[in-house]
Amino acid sequence: MTMTVSNRWLLLQLADGTFPSGGFAHSAGLEAATVLGALDAIRDEGAVARFLDASLRQAGRAALPFVRAAAAAPSRLEELDEAFDAMVPMLAPNRASRAQGRALASAASRVWEALAPIAEHARGGPAHHAPIFGAVFGALGVGGDETLEAYLHGATRGILSAAVRLGLLGPLEAQRLHASRASLLGEVLERARRIEPEVAAQTAPVIEIFAALHERLDGRMFQS
């Protein structure tokens, strides 16, 4: 799908870190992995890179199929949301996904009135981030590939931002790591195009376990 000029500006607005969707309140399990010592050398760029790579591959296998399906057919949001809910059985990661989805639906619907049905669903349904993300972009007319790219960009940016705030990387190290992941992001995106929501699955169980343990930390910088 060729994007119009207005859609390109819309994509930039939605993917910008200043859009108030609450994503920077979450570390995707990185904080718990750091505090609880999931990696012996977590305080180095290589360890953060391994965590990032596993997280991105999991996003491609678990979240992107739902993002793609909801973007293609926002009317399927309720069905896709319930299916995603069944795929995330651990309480803390499930709750974090719901919180991010509701924050995105609320913020986007206040900017674009056409998204009111999505916000209404979010008030009563699970409102997981991946299907909500896809439905928002799809309802606004953003192309499917651009939607998937925006989701992966946001996932990458969120983890690296958390790494900087946790003192694991400096800002320039994080940017260098982000730039070096271009080929991986392309690989994840290409594979995700062939995965249907019915066969989506989590692929990084250790990361999910540490995400589930996040709320047990004595002190927390992030919500998850």
Outline the fold blueprint.
Blueprint: H1 5-15, H2 30-35, H3 45-72, H4 77-87, H5 91-111, H6 116-124, H7 129-139, H8 144-165, H9 171-180, H10 182-192, H11 205-212
Helix pairs in contact: 3-4, 3-7, 3-8, 3-10, 4-7, 5-6, 5-7, 7-8, 8-9
Overview of this protein structure:
There is one protein chain. The protein is an all-alpha fold and 224 residues long. It contains eleven helices and no strands. α3 (45-72) runs antiparallel to α8.
Q: Name the CATH homologous superfamily.
A: Urease accessory protein UreF
Count of DSSP H/I helices: 11
Overall mean pLDDT stands at 90
Helix content: 55-70%
Question: Which architecture name does CATH use?
Answer: Orthogonal Bundle
Give the strand tally: 0
Gyration radius, rounded = 16 Å
CATH topology: Urease accessory protein UreF
Residue runs with pLDDT of under 50 for 5 or more positions? none
